[in-house]
Amino acid sequence: MNGTIGLDSLVTWLDAFRTAVTEQRAYLTELDSAIGDADHGANMARGMAAVMEKLETSTPSTADELFKSVGMTLVTSVGGASGPLYGTFFLRMGMTAGAVAEFDGAALAAALRAGLDGIVARGKAEAGDKTMFDALAPALDAFDAALAGGTPIPAAAGVAADAAEAGRDATEPLVARKGRASYLGERSAGHLDPGSASSALLMRTLADVLGSS
Amino acid sequence: MNGTIGLDSLVTWLDAFRTAVTEQRAYLTELDSAIGDADHGANMARGMAAVMEKLETSTPSTADELFKSVGMTLVTSVGGASGPLYGTFFLRMGMTAGAVAEFDGAALAAALRAGLDGIVARGKAEAGDKTMFDALAPALDAFDAALAGGTPIPAAAGVAADAAEAGRDATEPLVARKGRASYLGERSAGHLDPGSASSALLMRTLADVLGSS
Amino acid sequence: MKKLINAPEAVLADALAGVAAAHSDLRVDFANRIIYRATPKADGKVALISGGGSGHEPLHGGFVGTGMLDAACAGEVFTSPTPDQMQEATKVVDRGAGVLHIVKNYTGDVMNFEMAGELAAAESGVEVATIVTNDDVAVQDSTWTAGRRGVGVTVLLEKIVGAAAEEGRDLKAVLALAEKVNGSGRSMGMALTSCTVPAAGKPTFDLPDDMMEIGVGIHGEPGRHRVPLAGAHEIAAQLVEPILADLDFTSGPSIVMLNGMGGSPLIELYLMYGEVAKLLEKAGVKVARTLVGNYITSLDMAGCSVTVLKADDEILKLWDAPVVTGGLRWGA
Amino acid sequence: MKKLINAPEAVLADALAGVAAAHSDLRVDFANRIIYRATPKADGKVALISGGGSGHEPLHGGFVGTGMLDAACAGEVFTSPTPDQMQEATKVVDRGAGVLHIVKNYTGDVMNFEMAGELAAAESGVEVATIVTNDDVAVQDSTWTAGRRGVGVTVLLEKIVGAAAEEGRDLKAVLALAEKVNGSGRSMGMALTSCTVPAAGKPTFDLPDDMMEIGVGIHGEPGRHRVPLAGAHEIAAQLVEPILADLDFTSGPSIVMLNGMGGSPLIELYLMYGEVAKLLEKAGVKVARTLVGNYITSLDMAGCSVTVLKADDEILKLWDAPVVTGGLRWGA
Ligand SMILES: Nc1ncnc2c1ncn2[C@@H]1O[C@H](COP(=O)(O)OP(=O)(O)O)[C@@H](O)[C@H]1O
Ligand SMILES: Nc1ncnc2c1ncn2[C@@H]1O[C@H](COP(=O)(O)OP(=O)(O)O)[C@@H](O)[C@H]1O
Ligand SMILES: [Mg+2]
Ligand SMILES: [Mg+2]
Ligand SMILES: [Mg+2]
Ligand SMILES: [Mg+2]
């Protein structure tokens, strides 16, 4: 792959994410059973199935159309906390991307960053609250740093995915301060946050798709 | 023991029956779980506890008073099918016994027979319906026959208890036609009838008490 | 056994204390374990009492109040009350016009009510009439056996006949109506799980994860058949078909109850009602009134039953009449 | 998993079909999964909508009707509905006087309703006010966390504020009342067992036979503490004490709800209410109105919650006002 990422790669990414959350559905629900309400796997699988179904009937020609469609579909098909959060993430990615048909590294990084900012605007999560933020924030920091250091996009995405997984694992000892897990107080410690696990899948599938294309 | 049975022996019998149904409470309930509603042990234990409590506060001086008190206490403390049935059994025993302070064999046999007739009058059970009748009827027949053959009362009571237990065991293959177990149709076969089991205890405790006094 | 109780022996007394605390329009006689209306009905009206083992709530205590029962006698869990309870209730509720005893057809209930009727008539001269409900099509009917169980129709009957008594009909008319309602209704139940009787401490029967009981009553007793677990649509068919095979419901309007056994959540009961409604429509049964919820239960058993009652203008009018009880309330 | 369902994915759609079949005074929008009153309220009156994940029935769909909600949006089981549902409901129920959104405080519910409010205001210009209920004392309150969950008070609020809207109060007054009610109520819940989410197929958590969860919400989530199983009296104390410690209820009358989680039979709920009533009396709380039953549930979870609401003459009058819904009905 060269320095740009086309719409088809982005769709492939979304499809890979769909496959990942569908395959990991029971695992995500298991994590949500321990400190939540046992629906995160079902929520993500339902949402990404709806996204891919939507993309089959309408093929957007620009990144903003694509991500706006993904975001709206998630918002209107998922519900719960993850629906508005992932929905806002993609809606903001689209707004930032603009009417382009391909990304360079900087543009992708900016779009992802805008997505994360959207999650924070919606959910007010901070570092260490034990949410998807704790996987996404270090991932995007690592992505930015790698690109700034001249690492090619595929490798930078791999670094970002590693950081997301490290961030996910680091949620284990945390006491949740946001979302449903916060009701458990101290009992939330000792479990991975389900949203950080789905976010790690989001970053890993991005790395996989960029790396293999 | 000689040829007569005093009130104290009868009270000892009732106390022994109380002890038996209390100790066998779980077993009787287990039998009732299989083909009924899982309360026969509780019902009999509650009823006989009430009976002995009543007898502690008022000591009847004749057999009719004694059995009338036992019958009314069972009627008003047990409920279910077994309450009216065992209650009627003792009420009729009392009516037949009359204002006596002791029984000979024939009088005891007549009283028991009247009790059984009371059960039939109340519940319309026939032989083979898979009820307490199937333990009591052969027991009283055997008692009558033994007495008629000159067997002393204690031994005759032992023969009756044996017959009650055989009658109880013979309920196992039967398809119930009376009581709750009849709702199971063919599925009631293969289980002992709980009421026949408590009736077998009634006859066995009688034999024990008469034999040892 | 996991239950919100203090001790198995204390369940009934403690639950009655809760009823007394929760309902100022009811009066509880704790010694006799009877739930009365706090304000008795007017002189000259027929009174209705019912009673049965506990564990079927809201039946019967939850149906005491204006437009339904005058009193309910509570037995131990799954054990019919004793004759002295019914005798006492009969004496207390009689307003000089006689008392209808509503009895579910179980050997114990029938015998205890029978003794109560004998005692009441002999001692206080109160005129007693008795209706024995027997609507459960899971049980093959026969004069040689205990006959069909009384289940869901009892709820509908207490409402409809209660309204007629409130109107001032005499005992003969009230009894005739009760017989008409009982004869016009059929029920069928099923269970996904057993229930646990507090005094027994463990489930009455074991039911593997992939099996269900068809044809259960309301006492946690095993059903008529044990069959593989099926979807709601198939379960509905197994409940509706024997009902429709037993009585023709296509000639007029019907009242339908989708009743929960106590442990099934309301979302599942509505789901089941949706399946039942489809089957009834297909069979040409016109549903005029519906109840969905827990009305005659079997402790914590998961499962449901269906009751269909042939109605007519009279029955619908009585059904719609005001009722103010813990378990059913409308029109006032 | 033993449930009266056809398939986990179809639970919500099938249950809505049952609601539509059972209640002719409701209208179901299947595409948007919204339950409306069949007859909308009069022009110029404030409308109330609520919504949330399914599995809490009768909440919220069972509270749609005269005197309570105008519409309820149903999400997947335990998953809040999506903004487009609430936006659609808002547009449909608005009678020109604005719409109150009743939201239980959960991150998902709050965010989805927030997006709905933004969309409704932007697109159709309907004035929307929002009350977020947060009465669960099991959760330590803090601006740094998600805050307290909205539980039992939601039921009482929908009734009381629904009556005020029916009277014709304007949106500002309706919102102020909603805030007053929410601020005056506290709840605490417990579970004997987990529930099973259909899509998950197995219990959300394992609870040994000799343990119970104190401080559970209504999503089968584990509670705040796991403690040894205790008797009803002790359980009542563990529910009532944190409520009374959080707010003074002795200055006037209270409305008390003893709510079942879905899997506990009514006899146990009454028994629990008896224990709760004793503790409240001892603490000087005067109970003016009572609800005992399943009102805000957690599928098939066994357990209960207690809600205490400080009332006054206004609130009691609104409480007693007529209500005609599947889940609460009186006065009409
Ligand atoms: N305020 C928040 N900000 C960011 N992420 C959050 C927030 N609240 C919850 N989350 C994420 O959402 C995940 C739960 O999603 P999901 O189970 O689908 O929704 P719900 O909690 O409504 O059932 C959590 O694991 C957490 O990562
Ligand atoms: N009609 C009847 N005649 C004689 N005995 C009967 C009859 N019906 C039931 N029984 C006896 O009663 C027993 C059940 O008693 P119990 O469990 O205490 O009452 P219930 O069936 O009301 O729960 C049965 O096992 C049977 O022996
Ligand atoms: Mg969740
Ligand atoms: Mg029994
Ligand atoms: Mg019984
Ligand atoms: Mg959820």
What's the overall geometry of chain C?
A: globular
Low-confidence stretches of chain A: none
Widest sheet: strand ordering of chain C: 1-2-4-3-5-6
- Gross geometry of chain A: globular
The tally of structural domains of chain A comes to 1
Structural class of chain C: alpha/beta
Q: Given the structure, what is the number of helices of chain C? A: 8
Strand content of chain A: under 5%
- The CATH class designation of the largest domain in chain C is Alpha Beta
Number of domains of chain C: 2
Q: Provide the CATH superfamily of chain A.
A: DhaL domain
CATH architecture of the largest domain in chain C: 3-Layer(aba) Sandwich
Question: Average pLDDT of chain A, to the nearest integer?
Answer: 95
String of helices and strands of chain C = HEEEEHEHEHHEEEHEHEEHEE
Spatial strand arrangement across the major sheet of chain A? 1-2
Describe the model:
The complex is a heterotetramer, with two copies of chain A (213 residues) and two copies of chain C (332 residues). By secondary structure, chain A is mostly helical. Chain A has one domain: DhaL domain (Serine Threonine Protein Phosphatase 5, Tetratricopeptide repeat), CATH 1.25.40.340. Chain A is 70% helix and 3% strand. Chain A contains nine helices and two strands. The N and C termini of chain A lie close together (6 Å). Chain C folds into two domains: 174 residues, Dihydroxyacetone kinase, domain 1 (Rossmann fold), CATH 3.40.50; 134 residues, Dihydroxyacetone kinase, domain 2 (Hypothetical Protein Tm841, Chain: A,domain 3, 2-Layer Sandwich). Helix content of chain C is 33%, strand content 23%. With 332 residues, chain C is of the alpha/beta class. In chain C, helix 3 links the parallel strand 5 and strand 6. In chain C, helix 4 crosses helix 8 and helix 6 crosses helix 7. Chains C and D meet through helix 1, helix 6, helix 7, strand 11 and strand 14 of C and helix 1, helix 6, helix 7, strand 11 and strand 14 of D. One adenosine-5'-diphosphate (ADP) sits at the interface of chains B and C.
